[in-house]
Write a structure and sequence with these properties.
The complex is a heterodimer of chains A (about 525) and B (about 140).
Chain A lengths: L3 E2 L5 E2 L13 H5 L22 E6 L4 H13 L4 E5 L2 H4 L23 H7 L10 E4 L4 H14 L9 E3 L4 H7 L6 H18 L3 E2 L1 E4 L1 H5 L4 H21 L4 H4 L3 E7 L3 H22 L5 H4 L3 E5 L11 H15 L4 E3 L12 H17 L13 H24 L2 H6 L2 H18 L27 H16 L2 H16 L5 H9 L4 H12 L9
Chain B lengths: L5 E5 L8 H12 L3 E4 L6 H10 L4 E6 L4 H14 L6 E6 L6 H6 L4 E3 L5 H11 L8
Parallel strand pairs in B: 1-2, 1-3, 3-4, 4-5
Helix pairs in contact in B: 2-3
Classes of the chains: A alpha/beta (about 525), B alpha/beta (about 140).
Chain lengths: ~525, ~140
């Protein structure tokens, strides 16, 4: 019999039997859905109570372009918004900065000041929907902008709900959109924890993300381990900042990848819930069950999409999306078929949403909670993934924590090794990717893709100039001085950020103020 | 005496997705080339300066963000200015079909899209690198 490995290189047997899970104790290790350690899910009724949120990540060009896309997605039955920002915004640079050349509006929507945020959410009731915003280094600045737009709409901060990604550790590990060194970056995050606990109690202050770690080449076990260990690091820093664990842990959420290896992914989500519940109760002594419950968003694996035979991506995405649904995800993004080539067109984005709707309404998989619970194979995989993650925790703890491990380049190097191993397996045709190294087609018809030209940059530069001409420079300078003062001391940075936003200070100006105080991080490049 | 092919792998622009850059750097090194990886967020000026300093035969640019039509012309112009017109420039990443002829027109030697086997890139470089290099 030939040997088989998962997409992560894990060996799997041809058959699993009761002997593989002989030590499993139902009450201790699984329990019914809604019961500690939540391996089977955090809700007793699964999706019978409420379907997952169909949250399609979208953003491109100008705020006007993206606002129109949001209205289209909501009209098509989308149930939440998810904002993709462009690289200048993600890196805290205004559209007129030299490094922004050619990047404005390309990978997401450009937001330079409150004026852009007002357009982005124009005609969308922030009190009625939830928005997830993929923003990390400037997360506090963008949150402040969202709060001010809510204020303008008379939506109460007390009931406002949504998520900022705000996960800087995975930026150092994988996606590399960092600005400040790790420690001041962590301070900015604990400031948002403290501020929201008091003023925006239903806001998810962080989405601890494995998605990017996996996309960078990590295995399923590495994704699980590094993500949860990042989560633990945030809890440590929150407690060190003087916060009570139950004041902020219930608002922490997670974000995982849905890669192609079906059962391994299902096991990964289940293991994540069990590990988190035990860590939060037994290590951090959280009392509130909501602190124990790992809630997560999932996105299908962008890295698995192929530029070749792009319609195959529809099938890949549908199969990938099924795994987190069978494992009880709270929200889901399905990729569009053209995303190996460009940002999605309106048509491909709609088809991606339809994929979720078909799973939800036609397949019957939502009727039973954790339908794979008790499968010898799935339970064994869940145990194995948990064990591997805990072994990584030990290694990282021995280094002094995740910040220290990152400073040594440890997770970065582990991921680079996995990425290279996978690429070698593809080249050796040990792993077949349909349309790439197997079942290749000649003469494919080109796909019509979304092409973003330079007019978005022109619009954004014009609006930036207009904002700067109209605002009070004195008010901006005063707010930025207060921000620097808070950053240099111990005061929470959110109140001065809110003042800066109200004065129409730009993302670049707010980030520069903190660059002056905290400096910038530079990675030592290794291959 | 044989001369190892010297390659500068660079990641210009604001994007931090370096999986491709790092994988190809490893592959070229394993194929016997001398690889210098510049790290993230390099301006065209920094990249060309690195190529000059490292006496590079090849510059590999990894661009996924859509900024290639701004970055590549600048790199090509700077190379010409510094008398490095014979350095082979290759680009890997997400490049729309319509831009490929424009990039070739400005002198980019090879453009490699997602899914390209590493071996193909190795062979392309060996075949197209300037002649002073012995491909022993």
């Amino acid at each position: 019999m030939s040997s088989a490995t998962t997409v992560s290189g894990r060996h799997v047997a041809a058959l699993y039997t009761p002997g593989d899970i002989a030590a499993l104790d139902y009450a201790r290790d699984l329990a019914d859905p809604g019961e500690f350690p939540y391996t089977r899910g955090i809700h007793q009724s699964g999706y019978r109570g409420k379907l997952w949120t169909m949250r399609q990540f979208a953003g491109f060009g100008t705020p006007e372009d993206t606002n129109a896309r949001y209205k289209q997605l909501l009209a098509a039955g989308g149930t939440g918004l998810s904002v993709a920002f462009d690289l200048p915004t993600l890196m805290g640079r205004d559209p007129d900065h030299e490094l922004s050349l050619g990047e404005v509006g390309k990978c997401g929507v450009n937001v330079a000041s409150l004026a852009d945020m007002e357009v982005l959410f124009n005609g969308i009731d922030l009190g009625a929907i939830t928005s997830s915003m993929t923003i990390n280094s400037p997360a506090a600045m963008i949150l402040a902008m969202y709060l001010v737009v809510a204020e303008q709409q008379n939506a109460s901060w007390q009931t406002l709900s949504g998520t900022i990604q705000n996960d800087i550790l995975k930026e150092f590990i994988a996606q590399k959109e960092y600005i400040y060194p790790p420690r001041p970056s962590m301070r900015l995050i604990t400031d948002t924890f403290a501020f929201c606990a008091q003023h925006v109690p239903r806001w998810n202050t962080i989405s601890v993300s494995g998605y990017h770690i996996r996309e960078a080449g990590a295995t399923a076990a590495q994704e699980l381990a590094f993500t949860l260990r990042d989560g633990i690091e945030y809890v440590h820093y929150g407690i060190s900042a003087g916060l009570d664990v139950d004041a902020f842990a219930p608002r922490m959420s997670f974000f995982f990848n849905a890669h192609s290896d079906f059962f391994e992914e299902i096991a990964k989500y289940r293991a994540a819930r069990r590990i988190w519940a035990r860590v939060m109760r037994d290590k951090f002594h959280a009392q509130n069950p909501r602190s124990w419950q790992l809630r997560f968003h999932t996105q299908t694996a962008g890295v698995s999409l192929t530029a070749q035979q792009p319609y195959n991506n529809v099938v890949r995405t549908a199969l990938q999306a099924l795994a987190p649904v069978l494992a009880g995800t709270q929200s889901l993004h399905t990729n569009a078929l053209d995303e190996a080539l460009a940002l999605p067109t309106a048509e491909s984005a709609t088809l991606a949403l339809r994929t979720q709707q078909i799973i939800a309404h036609e397949t019957g998989v939502t009727d039973v909670v954790d339908p794979l619970g008790g499968s010898y194979f799935v339970e064994k995989l869940t145990n194995d993934l948990e064990e591997e993650a805990l072994a990584y925790f030990d290694t990282i703890d021995r280094m002094g924590g995740m910040v220290e491990a990152i400073e040594r380049g440890y997770p970065q190097q582990e991921i680079a090794e996995s990425a290279y191993r996978f690429q070698q397996a593809v080249e050796a045709r040990e792993k077949i990717i349909v349309g790439v190294n197997g079942f290749v087609a000649e003469d494919e018809a080109p796909l019509s893709i979304l092409y973003i030209d330079e007019s978005a940059a022109d619009t954004q530069l014009a609006r930036l100039a207009q904002v700067k001409a109209r605002r009070s420079q004195t008010a901006v300078d005063r707010a930025l001085d207060q921000l620097k003062h808070a950053a240099a001391g111990r005061d929470n940075t959110m109140p001065p950020l809110l003042d800066a936003v109200r004065a129409y200070a730009t993302v670049g100006e707010m980030c520069d103020a903190l660059r002056l105080v905290w400096g910038e991080y530079e990675e030592i490049p290794v291959i | 005496m044989s001369h190892k092919i010297r390659v500068v792998i660079a990641k210009p622009g604001l994007d931090g997705h370096d999986r491709g850059a790092r994988v190809i750097a490893r592959a070229l090194r394993d194929a016997g080339m001398e690889v210098i990886y510049t790290g993230l967020r390099q301006t065209p000026e920094q990249i060309v300066a690195a190529a000059l300093q490292e006496d590079a035969d090849v510059i590999g640019l990894s661009i996924l963000s859509g900024a290639h039509m701004h970055i590549c012309p600048r790199v090509m112009a700077l190379l010409e200015e510094r008398g490095l017109g014979d350095v082979l420039v290759v680009v890997g990443g997400i490049i729309p079909d319509v831009d490929i002829p424009k990039l070739k027109e400005m002198g980019v030697g090879g453009i490699f899209l997602p899914g390209t086997p590493m071996q193909e890139i190795v062979e392309f470089i060996r075949k197209n690198v300037r002649s002073r290099v012995e491909t022993a």
